Amino acid sequence: MSYEAIIGLEVHAQVQSRSKMYCACPVVEDTGDLQPNTYVCPVCLALPGSLPVVNRRAVELGVQAALALHCTVAPESVFARKSYFYPDLPKGYQISQYDLPLATDGYLEVQTGAGANRIRITRVHLEEDTGKLIHQQDGAWVDYNRAGVPLLEIVSAPDLRTVEEVRAYAMMLRADLVALGVNSGDMEKGALRFEANVSVRPVGAAALGTRTEIKNLNSFRALARAVEAEVQRQIATLESGRSIEQQTLGWDEARGATFVMRGKEHAHDYRYFPEPDIPPVQVSAAWIETLRAALPELPAARVQRFITTYGLRVAEAQLLSGESSVAAYFEAVMAAADGTVAAQDIANWITGEFFRLFKEHHLSMEQCRVTPLQLVRLQQLRQMRALSSTAAKAVLVEMFQTGEVPEVASERLGVLQLSDGVALQNWAERVIAANPTQVAQYLSGKSAVLGWLVGQIMATSQGRANPQQAREALLTALERWRSTS
Ligand code: ZN
Ligand code: MN
Questions:
Q1: Which residues in 230-326 belong to E strands, given as ranges?
Q2: Residue ranges, the chain, pLDDT below 50
């Protein structure tokens, strides 16, 4: 029997506001050396008598994300208490949203090899992050610096069918949130976290199978691997005649398998009720329109524009559109080039060598020392065949490290290829004079020797001759040699 997977994703995205969701404590990036419990106040520590106040900026960013996801923004939404006792939540409940969320009924268009698919988004709501528990031998410690940091929760309908689609959805959502300035996209620091609901059913069946929920997936890789493993586990379970139990699962990255965190009998009863300390949040139509007008161009629209304006392939257009800084750099290069270089060549530079160097040196486009004009000049040198492709890459590495212009870097590396006719002619004649046997072989019809002779010019010139022009100079010199000997 063949099965299909039914997958929905819940995403928690830290909202990039300067202060926390319900208090004035700053949101500080945790670089690892932050002192625990320094960015806290009576509100986020839930001291008696303290009162939460909704962060206006977080609402604005939430509305913008919702609009970008084609959602309907509720004119009035309500915060609610989601009760559960766990020490990372000092209040004993999380202030979230329940039956009247910020926005509902949107979608995200995802592209995979199988084509485009519209994934419905059920709801977008605001809530607060928890603190962090640190388990050590001498006990468990809690750090509330993160408690109360604004989170945007984005819940999709169970419209995803394949791991490829899950990955495409997650990446597209991240790209949109980063472009909007809603989220840093820094998954290593936990700024974006995924949970997947997974069930399987025989192809053609109408009823949904029992679903499981996989928690705490903090990278695209973990997300894709966990969903794949869970789909396979469920199929194997059904095939062996057993049934799927409704469970909450964790993902063990090392073992490459899901594990049970809790079963249905331990399901939380959150006892939601409206937060009595926060009045309903009203978002007027005028406010929505102001926020809509301020939306930046989103990656999906940019991909389309890059394809139509620059004639790029889909894959490159997507790579260049993922981050606004990269897209802006690409466009600055194209503007600086003013038609002298091909968009595809620039796309290759950025998605190839630039991305490789960024990764190797842990740099981002913002820190890149190669200006758009310098990249244009590098590509022009390449087009003039003054640089071989290997040499051009070496020159770029120099430019990266020193900020030098390409001419200076290539001169210093001694890799500029000479297209100077006189020099090439001299080298050709020297090679002919030094290799009479091979020259005679060539002249007697053994044309394969030509490549070897070109190689001698390259060696004599220490790689500085342009191979194409060296070959032409050699042919001319050989013809002259034939007619005079
Ligand atoms: Zn606080
Ligand atoms: Mn949540």
A1: 247-252, 257-263, 273-274, 281-282
A2: none
pLDDT at 260: 93
- Domains of the chain, first to last: 3-291 (no CATH), 313-413 (no CATH), 421-484 (1.10.10.410)
Distances (CA, A) of 23 to 91, 256, 374, 468: 14, 40, 47, 68
Distance 284 CA to ligand 1 centre (A): 28
Q: Which residues of 454-464 are buried (b: 16+ CB within 10 A; e: fewer)?
A: bebbbebbeeb
CA 53 to ligand 1 center in whole angstroms = 10
Query: What are the contacts of 242-246 at 24+ separation with CB within 8 A?
Result: 243/210, 244/199, 244/200, 244/209, 244/210, 244/211, 244/212, 245/210, 245/212, 246/210, 246/211, 246/212
**Strand-pair partners of 180:** none
Kindly tell me the burial class for residue 29, based on how many C-beta atoms sit within 10 Å of its own C-beta (0-12, 13-18, 19 or more): exposed
pLDDT for the residue 267 = 66
**CA–centroid distance, residue 385 to ligand 1 (Å):** 61
Whole-structure pTM over 0.90, yes or no?
A: no
Q: In this predicted structure, what is the pLDDT of residue 61?
A: 98
Which pLDDT value is given to residue 90?
Answer: 92
What is the reported pLDDT for 70? 97
Backbone angles phi, psi at 372, to 5 degrees: -55, -40
Gap from CA of 81 to ligand 2 centroid (Å): 12
Distance from Cα 125 to the centre of ligand 2, integer Å: 8
